[in-house]
Amino acid sequence: MRTTGPTTRRRRWAALLGATALAVTAGGALAAPAGAAPTDVDFPTHCIPPAIAGIPPIDGTTTAKITVDNAAPKVGDTVTVTYTVVKPAASNPVDLALPADIMTPTGKVTLGGAQTGAVTVAGPKKNDPVPGKGAFPSFSMTGTFTVTAPGAITLSPGDYNIHTSYIMELDTPCTVTDPPAPVSETVTATNGGGQTNNRAIQLGSASGNPGDGVTVTGSDFTPGATVTLAGRSGDAQTADTTTVTADGQGAFSGTLVVNDRTTTGVVAYEGASWNADKGAGPATYVVVDDTPVPDNAQRLTTTVKAGTLSMTQAGDAVELSAVDFGKGGASNGALKTVTVKDFRGGPAGWSLTGKVTDFTGPGAKIDAGALSWTPACVTKAGSPSTCRAGSSGTVGSSGATLASTPDGTLTGGEFTVDAGLSLDVPAFTPPGSYSGVLTLTLS
């Protein structure tokens, strides 16, 4: 999951550009993101407090939402999913206050519609302090899945677990009482063309202690193939590996013992080394660091928080040069500088595109196809990604790419995007003011 990303889900920002043929002026404003927002859903949940709390199970209501970094993927794309528990059903089961940054959430997102299954998600060890018997704070978990079928794929919140590491290791598992929970998000997948890799894996759990075994089940591998199960730390493979053999239907089930505390996911693949065309994953997995703190010592932990993909513009008014009646020609100007900030910290790149309406004036119009641009893009030093300017040419009503960055192991950074604008005004266009709307979309 081009991540999505956050995606983040797909972000749409509109910039309004006006132009005239004789005394060219502009007007407009930056608009809010377009498109339907993910839906918060409520569902009954059964939570089991740790036995040490001495209290019965909690039957309550969880409020949650699902977001994706790409709501219109192609078959074969990887989609990043974020499961946010807005309001947990459970609370701190003990009178003892819990300090900050001791909660590690994990969970599942249920897929339905054109593709079924579950996505393993996990969150960082990050939380605000929780008072005794106080409500657990909101938290988010992320994971990925590979699109294997075209059509509408629904995403619903699934079971989740709140692991706390303070004095002792405790779990509060919460299950959906009447699964599946309501649909919070839907993505619509299209055929990507070419040969599709339908291999998929699921994990029996989303977290464990060092040395624990995690059950890995797979489907749609080559029947009889030797499949390697391996831990991943970011983009690198760890030393934790084992092999299994796919059955006559291409399915398998095996156990991978995970010792590496830096593990962030698990993959399965055919062949001597990882190959995305013959593998599946990574499925998110978190190793809970239970190393005892030595006497007279303190464990220091920090978290790098993922941000968002956003853009701003230096202004919303562009004045193109005037042209003479009877001569016409190029009415030139420059797009107000657009600044793109990609602070998601994931593998997804981004694309900034634009399309324009016809330019309307006094009883006449100038066709949208008359507007062309010459894009330019500059990458701020130190950015992991490198910005690529779009091709020079017609913008038109169908649109064109202004700038983009590719997918990669780690993407992000800051970028400034500009473009020279030229409107080809017909020679005998009636005198007056003509304006059109240029919409910029960041995704």
What does this structure look like?
The protein is mainly β and 443 residues long. A hairpin with a 4-residue loop joins strand 23 (359-360) and strand 24. It has strands at 41-47, 58-68, 78-87, 103-113, 117-122, 139-146, 151-166, 168-176, 185-189, 200-203, 207-208, 212-219, 226-233, 236-245, 252-258, 265-270, 279-284, 286-287, 309-313, 329-334, 338-342, 350-356, 359-360, 365-366, 371-379, 388-389, 393-394, 400-405, 413-425, 438-442. It folds into two domains: 41-287, Neocarzinostatin-like (Immunoglobulin-like, Sandwich); 309-442, Immunoglobulin-like. It contains no helices and 30 strands. Strands 1, 2, 3, 4, 5, 6, 7, 8 and 9 form a nine-stranded antiparallel beta sheet that branches. Strands 19, 20, 21, 25, 27 and 29 form a six-stranded antiparallel beta sheet that branches. Strands 14-13-16-17 form a four-stranded antiparallel beta sheet, with no helix packed on it. This is Beta-xylosidase. InterPro entries: TAT_signal.
Tags for this model:
Immunoglobulin-like, 2 domains, elongated, mainly beta, 443 residues, 30 strands, 9-stranded antiparallel sheet, disordered N terminus, 6-stranded antiparallel sheet, 0% helix
